[in-house]
Amino acid sequence: LRTHNSIVQNAAATQQFNSEAEMGIMGASVFMRYRPLDMSIAFPVDWMHAVLLGVERTIMDLWFSPQNSGKIFFIGRSIPKLNKQLLQLKVPDNISHMPRSILGRHHWKA
Q: pTM (2 decimals)?
């Protein structure tokens, strides 16, 4: 896990070595000037970008991509059955978007 000190060190390394990113840290933040602030716990995780567009998309690609057809976790052969179940879902009226096909998952938005 990241600590405040590791974040500060990585930010310093990006400036010292003129690199674009160091362990995902792209540079120093103005918030680092405020000493009581712990950079590792001060900001909440951005759920949409970190999870829905990061982890979820990666997992979906692993599960359904033909490149993984030989792997134990591959479920791409079940897409027709999963699509049928997904597209038959009845959503409440206050949800504006209906479920869409897994085949179009690359166009899904968070």
A: 0.56
Asked if 10 and 25 count as a contact pair (C-beta separation under 8 A), the reply is yes
| Whole-angstrom distance, CA of residue 107 vs CA of residue 55 | 16
56 vs 40: CA distance, rounded Å = 23
Taking the C-alpha atoms of residue 98 and residue 15, their distance in angstroms, rounded to an integer, is 47
Return the residue matching tokens 């993984």.
Answer: 68
> Tokens in use for 17?
């070595």
Q: What distance in Å separates the CA atoms of residue 10 and residue 26, rounded to the nearest whole number? A: 8
Tens-digit pLDDT profile for residues 23-56: 888 888 888 888 899 988 898 878 887 788 888 8
For residue 107, what are its two tokens? 């166009």
Question: What are the structure tokens assigned to 109, written together?
Answer: 């938005």
The Cβ of residue 64 has, within 10 Å, a number of other Cβ atoms equal to 19
